[in-house]
């Protein structure tokens, strides 16, 4: 089993280009099920989750091909396959994204209940409620979600849940509604940039969608969708991770293709901490397209200030950057409070940070982080994708050697993280650790 061995204490310097967003790529790939024409996706990162989604689509009759670092080409070769099997779906939660497109295009879908990271309860009831509202018959058979409908019908759908809107649920219902008869109104829709990116691609395929990026999305159904050539939005979580990696090492890093417009809440908190983000694209106000793909230089003050952070649905502070900012705040001069409003149990990394000398006290959905002068390297265990990233950041700043075990989690969301960090001057290597 792979692990990262990190000898901390080196300042990061250099340039990083942010890849296309993983959380956008997976629903976009699933949307290829809505058409029999070719779909081309550009700037797709090379990740374990992307490979697994490719395997799943191949089983469902969509070939996925890629040459070297080129675009992803998807083409339907069998439109009669409707089952997403357990052995693939269990590897990632985003597999649920095939449910809506398969049902809408093929009239039936059998999708195993999804797996994914160990970050707390994440039910799919809102997905199923939304598809039922569109006229589908939905049930559970032997661990599979089974949905059937000759043709879906437009309806008003409410997707609000106890912890906010559902991103994948919004993607599922919006995708399904593109081929439904009549008009669908999605209330309490997720506003994340990845949902907006999906809407942009579907619109380019011939869908009629308005309101994406707001809590109210309107979809007017059409009879068919065409193929498309689409470039992904940059990955705001990857960008935020490398921004904090630069900050925790007091580094000097240029982030290219950085989606600053999607990181407003993150930038707000980091500026309070003492992390400075300086655009390098000139003094003139950027156009919308420039803002999506801006270059920024990261530098941080010697003394980091404590802050309060609350994770919220977009445009709030993303839960996927909670572990990373916790690692950063371990080095701040004072007491910070981090409150998790999306997945209240997403704190398995706290115990591992304590092993490195951090002072963190959990109380329900909040953690009090009391800054220390330095962290100490130690063997730690990654519990999920973003917790892994937080532990790597802590290791970059720690004295001595940190071994981050189970880094297969990282391969699901970061393309060659250790190679990127090596190029920035980090002393980090991937090693094979025998299974216990």
Walk me through the structure.
The chain is of the alpha+beta class and 436 residues long. The chain folds into two domains: 2-19 and 234-432, Enolpyruvate transferase domain (UDP-n-acetylglucosamine1-carboxyvinyl-transferase, Chain); 22-231, UDP-n-acetylglucosamine1-carboxyvinyl-transferase, Chain (Alpha-beta prism), CATH 3.65.10.10. The chain is built from 14 helices and 26 strands. The strands form seven sheets. It has a four-stranded mixed beta sheet, with helices on one face. A four-stranded mixed beta sheet has the order 2-17-19-18. α4 (99-106) packs parallel to α6 (167-177), α6 (167-177) packs parallel to α7 and α8 runs parallel beside α13. The model is unreliable at 116-122 and 286-291 (pLDDT under 50).
CATH C-level of the largest domain: Alpha Beta
Helicity range of the residues? Answer: 25-40%
Number of strands: 26
Calculate the terminal CA-CA distance, rounded to whole Å. Answer: 9 Å
Radius of gyration, whole Å: 22 Å
The tally of helices reads 14
CATH architecture of the largest domain: Alpha-beta prism
**Unreliably modeled segments:** 116-122, 286-291
What value does the average pLDDT take?
93
Compact summary:
The chain has 14 helices and 26 strands.
């Amino acid at each position: 089993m792979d692990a990262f061995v990190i000898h901390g204490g080196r300042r990061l310097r250099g340039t990083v280009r942010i890849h296309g967003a993983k959380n956008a790529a997976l629903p976009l790939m699933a949307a290829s099920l809505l058409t029999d024409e070719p779909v081309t996706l550009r700037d797709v990162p090379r990740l374990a989750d992307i490979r697994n989604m490719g395997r799943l689509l191949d089983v469902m009759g969509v070939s996925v091909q890629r040459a070297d670092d080129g675009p992803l080409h998807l083409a339907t070769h069998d439109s009669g396959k409707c089952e997403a099997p357990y052995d693939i779906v269990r590897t990632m939660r985003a597999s649920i994204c095939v449910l809506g497109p398969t049902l809408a295009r093929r009239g039936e879908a059998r999708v195993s209940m999804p797996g994914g990271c160990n970050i707390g309860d994440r039910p799919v009831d809102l997905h199923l409620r939304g598809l039922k509202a569109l006229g589908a018959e939905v049930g559970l058979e032997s661990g599979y979600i089974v949905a059937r409908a000759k043709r879906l019908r437009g309806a008003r759908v409410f997707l609000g849940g106890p912890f906010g809107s559902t991103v994948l649920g919004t993607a599922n219902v919006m995708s399904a509604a593109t081929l439904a008869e009549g008009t669908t109104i999605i209330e309490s829709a997720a506003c994340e940039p990845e949902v907006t990116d999906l809407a942009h691609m579907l619109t380019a395929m011939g869908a009629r969608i308005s309101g994406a990026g707001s809590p109210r999305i309107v979809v007017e159904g059409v009879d068919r969708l065409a193929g498309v050539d689409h470039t992904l939005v940059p990955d705001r979580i990857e960008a935020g991770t490398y921004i904090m990696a630069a900050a925790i090492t007091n580094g000097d890093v240029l982030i290219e293709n950085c989606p600053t417009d999607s990181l407003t809440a993150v930038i707000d908190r980091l500026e309070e901490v003492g992390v400075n983000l300086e655009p390098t694209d000139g003094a003139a106000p950027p156009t919308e397209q420039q803002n999506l793909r801006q270059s920024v230089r990261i530098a941080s003050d010697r003394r980091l200030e404590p802050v309060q952070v609350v994770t919220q649905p977009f445009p709030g502070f993303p839960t996927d950057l909670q572990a990373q900012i916790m690692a950063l705040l371990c080095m701040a001069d004072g007491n910070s409070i981090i409150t998790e409003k999306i997945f209240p149990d997403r704190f398995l990394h706290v115990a591992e940070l304590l092993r490195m000398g951090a002072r963190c006290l959990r109380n329900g959905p909040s953690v009090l982080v009391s800054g220390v002068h330095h962290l100490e390297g130690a063997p730690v265990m990654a519990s999920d994708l973003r917790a892994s990233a937080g532990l790597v950041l802590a290791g970059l700043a720690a004295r001595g050697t940190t071994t981050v075990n189970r880094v297969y989690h990282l391969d699901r969301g970061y393309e060659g993280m250790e190679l990127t960090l090596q190029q920035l001057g980090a002393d980090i290597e991937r090693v094979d650790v025998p299974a216990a």
